[in-house]
Amino acid sequence: MFVAVRKATTDILSRHAISGSYRCLAFEPPTTSVPINPRLDYKYIRANVDEVKRNVQLRKSNADIDRLVELYGQFVAVDREIANCNRSKKDFAQHRNDDEGRLLKGRVAELEQKALQVKHELYEAGLLVPNQTHPEVPHTKPRILKEVGSKPTFDFPFKNHLELGASLDLLDFETGARVSGAKFVYLKNEAALLELALVNYAVHKLSARGFIPWLTPDVVRHDVMAGCGFQPRGTNSQVYSIADHDLCLVGTSEIPLAGIYASSTVPVNQLPIKMVAFGHCFRVEAGSRGQEVKGLYRLHQFSKVEMFCVSTPEMSSDLLDELVAIEEEIFTELGLHFQVLDMPADDLGAPAYRKFDIEAWMPSRDSYGEVSSASNCTDFQSRRLGIKFKRGKESLFAHTINGTAVAIPRLLL
Fold it and tell me: What is the phi/psi pair of residue 141, to 5°?
């Protein structure tokens, strides 16, 4: 692994580092805070209740479609009444009926407050509705699409990563637990250098392919987190929220990358936008058990290089295939044995229309473990974040696609 990382990084730096080809973007995202105006497709849900309910059941979601449709009906009725009152106000003004006009003004103020409340409840209910599901997605078990390489064999009793980490002075879980708590670790010596080498290798590989490199914040607002399909609040949330602030720690760089284009309309000739970011990931990891409790496999904090794309609907399927191909290339160059999986409906999370995972063989665990994931989220995130593109006179919702280039230190296993 050391040899592949060092060689690829040196080659890419020498050929591409000064080219700057990925810097040319005519469109710039907003530089000031713009309120996010989510536009969920309530009309579609109301017109296709049975289909949406089947999808919710397939994905084992807890979305309440009947409640959502009821709230949407309430919002439409209140909105219609506001429009009627405003028309009547104009009539009274023309006939100088000031008393009736004042009464209607007060009524409109009441209705607008009610509309805001119902709209908030409607959006909260809508956030729980998962994306539609690709028709070829398996229903219950992952489908193995490809297997690369073979399981490594050893003619000696090998140590697991905890034993190696201790004997070679690479990992310090005891200090991590004392300073930060359980499921935190210090990487040191060659382990620290290996993480930095893997990050450098992945970022330069992607930037050489035209991906714009970013270093993103580790903190985002709640509405950006929710807009990406992650629940920042609730008893089962995997998100660390910051007390007394409308902020939370990100679980992936996908979230701040998506936030770059929130409330934006991108010219269609600028698409697709391809980005790559290095960032830290923070996850509560509630409910992990057994061998996942100890070691590097599940941590509250880890590092990751993430790919993220914004595209037209026609481009997103091919872009998903491109991200998976890049992931396969990375893990092949690193000499890993891995499987590519088409993930089932109940393992897609809320945002993904389709998701491919890569699981590598981990001798330390004597099993396969996820090292990468790539998802096509279609317009799920763009509707919640207001990411659009302009085609002619039309403003349409973009598609978003994401994938993990390298996730560390899990990849070290």
Answer: -115, 150
